[in-house]
Design goal:
The protein is mainly alpha-helical and 109 residues long. It contains five helices and two strands. Helices cover 42% and strands 4% of the residues. Helix 1 packs across helix 2. The chain starts with a helix and ends in a 19-residue tail after the last helix.
Length: 109
């Protein structure tokens, strides 16, 4: 699948849920390409900003969109890797700040 097709597919499904792609399309396309690499490598789209174990069960929490996205976007306007953001974040209505890692250390590899 072309990265542009993945972008369109995810935008269609995630936008209605209130999750938008970062306005920096260069960043977005780099991250989407990394998701596609992880899909080929592991068989699932592991978050490109975290280390994957290669075990789907152990990585369930970091399969994009990860389970931490909702809390990250609610609290910071952006997910950990800045792929998904809120409308206010994209419009500059809220401060762009560092999103701390929420994944518990015992799940990190």
């Amino acid at each position: 699948m072309k990265v542009e097709d993945l972008y369109a597919q995810l935008a269609r499904t995630q936008g209605p849920k209130g999750y938008y792609f970062n306005a920096d399309l260069s960043l977005v396309f780099d991250l989407l390409e990394s998701l596609q690499i992880n899909m080929k490598r592991y068989g699932y789209m592991a978050c490109p900003c975290r280390l994957s174990s290669g075990d789907r069960g152990k990585d369930r929490d970091i399969i994009c969109p990860c389970v931490y996205r909702a809390a990250d976007v609610a609290g910071f306007g952006s997910c950990y890797c800045n792929l998904y953001v809120s409308k206010d974040w994209n419009e500059g209505k809220i401060k762009h700040q560092f999103v701390p890692e929420r994944r518990p250390p015992e799940l990190q590899f």
